[in-house]
Specification:
three-stranded antiparallel sheet, alpha+beta, 9 helices, Transcription Regulator spoIIAA, 14 strands, 2 domains, Nucleoside Triphosphate Pyrophosphohydrolase, homodimer
Chain lengths: 290, 290
């Protein structure tokens, strides 16, 4: 068992089982062939060809696309699809910074393979015996990764909220952190992955932050998303990531990136380059298909 | 002008002008078609096919390959190729951690497109008015990047020296740093690129280190590689990278990675994800071709 096993979990993708999801000449996602065949039942909304899924030509504005797609997805939900319906919309766009082409229910994002975005916070404490990291244990009620180990604070980014604003909000809600303390968090880069999970295809970019916490700070679960918090030496955290599947797949990736940035992993490790290279997909973006 | 221009300089590559350089069924590099045709004159050493360049089947050991290839390269050097001959060998292998399949003169590495490795040190000072970084100005006598701005300490990794050992040596030679101070440098990850330069194809992985320097430390040029050192606010360094080509292409990449890791760049920047993704190639390694 090694860190490579965890990184491989972030790169499980069989291209031949998908066809592109295309809007305005841009590939914005990937749809499984079975799901594409299912969408044929809605020709007023989806334009299903053998080589791609698009939207009906009549749907020209973000508002009309969002409403039409929502109608189909709510019908499919009522037939039992999209476990863990959130009532929270994610943008579908050329990039994180572009205006949305439409928005779709978060629970349906992995069925369209469109991009998701999140913000994850590494909460660490510098002690005389080395770096320690605060780890959260996810509630058994969570739809994805119930009971798994996770960052102290982590969440998806819905439409209409800035990264830092969302982080500050989650720091209060998930860990009972004061706004004054939360504001000392520093952005440290991104990790990204394209991988098949139970819920579908996850193609996410996570914005990561580090926060150096005072020794007397203790996170408190306040919103029921996290059951418990633990403060562990970083070497124990890494050993657990190497030897078990206790961590949520993307939380493990965020911690591996942390370990690289803080010199916990070193060039002496024969996996070093493979690990540092695998943390991000590299040079991807929505692709022009016309 | 933006950081993206600098990152694009690290990704200039036209696949169709190269054919693979293959040893033992592994693609270990890329050779320009012109150079491949030139190597046809040495059938005892090179096996030049239209779709690949290999070594003659009789060359089965690293020692015999190294000696035979060195003979050809010295001949070509005497005809005026390989400006800046170093008399220093780089390994050619499946990965940094694998035993070399052969070693070749450093100045010829870009002609074979085999991988190079380096170690770069970000020397920074935390001042009350923010992060400052020590920048070196390369000697006009340097073969690559004469007069360009660079990390305080940076160097290629020849055969037979460990990353950290080489860094400690260069800290003394290039910046007059004490061993005690140099030992406080921390590994912080890698950057990598595959790009066409005047000297040929550069496919490098750089091992990066950070060092937090005391305010009273001043680097001193000792070995003639660096003409001068400057301590600049990190925002001035980034502005200069954005607006000029004063920095060596790979030094700019190392500083952009530093700026991401230290929160100098933030997710509010519309280039943030493109920048964080472009810092490394992602999931590459020598490719099995058999």
């Amino acid at each position: 068992m090694s860190l490579i096993d965890r990184l491989d979990e972030c790169a499980r993708f069989s291209p031949h089982t998908y066809r592109p999801f295309v809007i305005d000449g841009l590939q914005v996602g990937r749809v499984r062939h079975e799901f594409a065949r299912m969408l044929r039942a809605y020709p007023d909304v989806f334009d299903c060809r053998d080589d791609a899924v698009g939207l009906a030509a009549s749907l020209r504005t973000p508002e009309s696309r969002t409403a039409a797609v929502a109608g189909v997805l709510e019908g499919l939900r009522d037939q039992g699809m999209f476990a863990g319906w959130r009532g929270e919309h994610y943008p579908v766009s050329e990039s994180y910074y572009a205006a949305p082409l439409l928005t779709i229910e978060r629970a349906a994002v992995p069925s369209f393979g469109t991009m998701g975005y999140g913000v994850h916070l590494n909460g660490f404490v510098r002690q005389s015996d080395g770096l320690h990291m605060w780890i959260g244990k996810r509630s058994m009620q969570k739809q994805t990764g119930p009971g798994k180990l996770d960052q102290m604070v982590a969440g998806g980014l819905p439409v209409g909220i800035a990264v830092r604003e969302n982080l500050l909000k989650e720091c209060g809600e998930e860990a009972g952190m004061s706004l004054q303390l939360a504001r000392t968090a520093v952005p440290v880069g991104t990790v990204s992955y394209l991988t098949e999970r139970k819920e579908g295809l996850r193609h996410d970019v996570l914005f990561n932050y580090d926060i150096a916490l005072p020794p007397d700070f203790k996170p408190t679960p306040t919103d029921g998303e996290v059951d418990d918090f633990f403060l562990w030496p970083i070497s124990d955290v890494l050993q657990r990531i190497r030897e078990t599947e206790d961590f949520k797949f993307n939380a493990a990736l965020v911690i591996i990136d942390f370990a690289v940035r803080h010199g916990v992993l070193t060039p002496d490790d024969p996996e070093y380059i493979v690990v540092t290279e695998a943390i991000r997909l590299g040079r991807f973006s929505a692709t022009k298909v016309r």
